Amino acid sequence: YYAKAFKKDIPQCVDILSDILLNSTIDEEAVQMEKHVILREMEEVERQTEEVIFDRLHTTAFRDSPLGYTILGPEENIRNMTREHILEYINRNYTSDRMVVAAAGDVDHKELTALVEKHFAGLPQPKRSKIILPTEKPFFCGSELLHRNDDMGPTAHVAVGFEGVPWKSP
């Protein structure tokens, strides 16, 4: 969640953000409508050459890893999504230990801290044991993928990916 505001509007901005996070109603009809919107967006993305080629590149380069997943996810996930899935996700993840409020620009830190403490006081504490994240890091696996789609026009589109220099490399 993100908001851009003038300094004088920061209190209202924090209030609105907290209201969205803590008091959203998840209407079943709206969920179904949004699913159709996302499915149409997925169809549109599949017609955009650059989107397709880079999705395929990442899928091939980072097999069996979240880095290889498309940003919209599998169509089946969208079709099977329910209001209950969304509520379960919110209850599990919208907790005080998994949230950060950050601000940049003309912001008074003490004022912002007070606003966050006031408006986010209702944020639930975690109801789960500590999450153990997998220790195995995604790795680049060089490979080749040929994907033919005659609907994309008479030209060929080629992408080449390779492992870059690590962040901590000397």
Fold blueprint:
Blueprint: H1 10-23, H2 28-45, H3 49-61, H4 75-80, H5 83-93, H6 109-119
Helix pairs in contact: 1-6
Descriptive overview:
Its cofactor is Zn(2+). It comes from Toxoplasma gondii GAB2-2007-GAL-DOM2. Residues 1-75 form the Peptidase M16 N-terminal domain. Keywords: Hydrolase, Metal-binding, Metalloprotease, Mitochondrion, Protease, Zinc. Residues 80-167 form the Peptidase M16 C-terminal domain. This protein has 170 residues and is an all-alpha fold. The chain has one domain (7-152): Metalloenzyme, LuxS/M16 peptidase-like (Cytochrome Bc1 Complex, Chain A, domain 1, 2-Layer Sandwich). 43% of the residues lie in helices and 0% in strands. It has 6 helices and no strands. It has helices at 10-23, 28-45, 49-61, 75-80, 83-93, 109-119. Helix 1 (10-23) packs parallel to helix 6 (109-119). The two termini are 36 Å apart. The model has no long low-confidence stretch (mean pLDDT 89).
Key terms:
170 residues; mainly alpha; Cytochrome Bc1 Complex, Chain A, domain 1; 6 helices; 0% strand; metalloprotease; EC 3.4.24.64; zinc
CATH class descriptor name: Alpha Beta
Helix content: 40-55%
- The dominant shape is extended
Mean pLDDT score = 89
Main beta sheet, described? none
Number of helices: 6
Termini separation? 36 Å
CATH topology: Cytochrome Bc1 Complex, Chain A, domain 1
Rg (C-alpha, Å)? 21 Å
Q: Specify the CATH architecture.
A: 2-Layer Sandwich
User: How many domains make up the 3D coordinates?
Assistant: 1
Low-confidence stretches: none
EC number: 3.4.24.64
Domain Peptidase M16 C-terminal: 80-167
Domain Peptidase M16 N-terminal: 1-75
Keywords: Hydrolase, Metal-binding, Metalloprotease, Mitochondrion, Protease, Zinc
